[in-house]
Amino acid sequence: MIDRTGLAEFLRRRRESLQPEDVGLPRGQRRRTNGLRREEAAALCHMSTDYYARLERERGPHPSEQMIASIAQGLHLSLDERDHLFRLAGHTPPARGPAGDYISPGLLRVFDRLADTPAEIVTELGETLRQTPLGVALTGDTTRYTGPARSLGYRWFTDPETRARYAREEHEFLSRMFASGLRQIATLRGPDSRAARYVALLLAESEDFRRVWDQHEVGIRPNETKRFVHPEVGDLELTCQHLVDPDQSHNLLVYTAIPGSESYDKLQLLSVIRSQTWLAPPST
């Protein structure tokens, strides 16, 4: 059963405890509100201000599990706080661990400060949870996929468009790397895991996967340098740095180029192209 009073008070306190800079928002010069405004919190939670305000006023419909999950992520709640929020709303908290998509507040705080850099948060299976705008410009919106296609490793063996984003001379290494990683994760998580299901699907669907899978390789690590092929700016050679959340097995990937290099100039050009695309009037 929903605890409307407890839910309202908890949401209000959490909203008021957050500062704009905690969630990647500008503070502005005329801020009088303690913490975030309701409209800011609502935007972070991907809901209308009216809906969010009604929850804080102990009114409105019973929020769904999906809505509560969105609120928990938007307000940067810890896992304990997230679970508490679910119980206040009358729901069972989601399972914790590597199968979950919930991003820790610490990882989100780092991510929120990377707006001008290509970056993404991914699961251990390469499922994209968040991308910065320049990350979308670099690799496309990889959060749009559903089902097994959410996994970059799965798409690598089933989607030619995914392979086209990477330098052709890297393809053999990447095939071996993705198969190696999937083997390790499937063994670690067990036969009922999502990784094991992806293995079964790929064995049935991809001859290339079957070929590298039969080599039984493990421990092939990603190269620090990634070579992308972008449809607008061409070849890019970027350094990829990893920050790992051990509790959720999520990775924050940050892509940078050596200052003064050709790839650095292309990355700046890509940022300009992205800005112009956003500012362009809609076609009629």
TrEMBL record:
PROSITE patterns: HTH_CROC1. It comes from Cryptosporangium phraense. Residues 29-82 form the HTH cro/C1-type domain. One of its GO terms (molecular function) is DNA binding. PANTHER family: BLL4672 PROTEIN, BLL4672 PROTEIN-RELATED. This is Helix-turn-helix domain-containing protein. It comes from the Bacteria. InterPro entries: Cro/C1-type_HTH, Lambda_DNA-bd_dom_sf, MLTR_LBD. Pfam families: HTH_31, MLTR_LBD.
